[in-house]
């Protein structure tokens, strides 16, 4: 595996976080909480289960990510959930940033950027757009959960 200073995704364990979600079609801002479970398989794959709780919404969103083809500068990422089924993307690794993007013609497009902070947390920013051009903008932070 490539050497870098990132712990998010590259160390097995639990990450928790929070932030705000805004939508282009609404002035409202909604608070969310997230939890990531990161597991490394003997097959070289990194499997992540992300759960998102949005304040005021009863149902949680669960996303499964599988990371493969890891190099010093990037990786392949596969996102699976009930709404999208399966979307393939490309990941990028920089000194202080982890990022990935998905570009499925006609159906799904978006990106996420995780920026490492001095205290080990990551600030995150994500934007997704639907075929009808509505945008979802997510800003927050995540940190490794202490046992």
Helix-strand layout with pairing:
Blueprint: E1 13-23, E2 26-40, E3 46-54, E4 61-68, E5 74-81, E6 85-93, E7 97-104, E8 108-116, E9 122-129, E10 135-144
Antiparallel strand pairs: 1-2, 1-10, 2-3, 3-4, 4-5, 5-6, 6-7, 7-8, 8-9, 9-10
What does this structure look like?
With 147 residues, the protein is an all-beta fold. It has a single domain (13-22, 29-142), classed as Lipocalin. The protein contains no helices and 10 strands. Strands 1-2-3-4-5-6-7-8-9-10 form a 10-stranded antiparallel β-barrel. The model has no long low-confidence stretch (mean pLDDT 91).
What would the keywords be for this entry?
mainly beta; Lipocalin; ten-stranded antiparallel beta barrel; 10 strands; 0% helix; 65% strand; globular
Concise summary:
The protein is mainly beta and 147 residues long. The chain is built from no helices and 10 strands.
Q: What is the architecture at the second tier of CATH? A: Beta Barrel
Largest sheet, strands/sense/barrel: 10 strands, antiparallel, barrel
User: Under CATH, the topology is which?
Assistant: Lipocalin
Question: Rg to the nearest angstrom?
Answer: 15 Å
In one word, what is the shape?
globular
